[in-house]
């Protein structure tokens, strides 16, 4: 199709961009469920990952939308997000994290490893739209994102395709979509900035978030953990993302042993 009618495809995409309309037919996704493996209980729904098979044209339009959003956000992202960012990697994150730990002069340095439950699946659309509005994009671009989130539908079909179960989507980013990663980064950017502005060194790779808690006593570290979790829960309540208390961990990374000498 792309080679046979390229001019018509361009006209169609230009019309979507200019009018701020994402066609409803392009929002329909077929869900393929993949078992996560690694010994997870196959009887539990969370042991499976839903992947959205999307319309090819929808992906092309999303590429244009994401490209424009990346241009708008150039130089505005919190530099502590290393996931889904061009020129950034896990190695860069580790280098940054190790450097912060080594440079700390606190007696205790602990890492709070935060795990979010189904992060991409539960983001609240109104909050994402608020963040998109805050980027300063023009009205046509914002209308297109509004249309992108409106009337989204998914279905699961049997192997023959003759039996389908339909659901309307009310939240979350389709896993397998082009826009999902940048929309997650846009949401988490708010939390990363908040914590770092409060003097809590925090880095993230996609939804894997690590906060450094520092103090001159165990009691101060424990108090710091409580304060950090308070900020994280406020953000998670706002965006509809749950924190997995079972998987969130606190690890002691560094302890300074100070020796005093009597004169």
Keywords:
single chain; 8 helices; alpha+beta; 263 residues
Summarize the structure.
With 263 residues, the chain is α+β, with helices and mostly antiparallel strands.
Describe the protein.
- With 263 residues, this protein is α+β, with helices and mostly antiparallel strands.
- The chain has one domain.
- Helix content is 42%, strand content 21%.
- It has helices at residues 6-19, 56-73, 90-103, 119-122, 125-134, 139-149, 180-197, 218-239; strands at 28-35, 48-54, 108-114, 116-117, 153-157, 164-168, 202-205, 208-215, 242-243, 249-255.
- The strands form 3 sheets. The chain has a 4-stranded mixed beta sheet with strand order 2-1-5-6. A 4-stranded antiparallel beta sheet has the order 7-8-3-10. Strands 4-9 form a two-stranded antiparallel sheet.
- Strand 7 and strand 8 (208-215) form a beta hairpin.
- Helix 7 runs antiparallel to helix 8.
- The longest helix has 22 residues, at 218-239.
- The chain is globular, with a radius of gyration of 22 Å.
- It starts with 5 loop residues before the first helix and ends in an 8-residue tail after the last strand.
- The model has no long low-confidence stretch (mean pLDDT 91).
- Residues 15-263 form the Reverse transcriptase domain.
- This is Reverse transcriptase domain-containing protein.
- Pfam families: RVT_1.
- InterPro entries: DNA/RNA_pol_sf, RT_dom.
- It comes from Trichogramma brassicae.
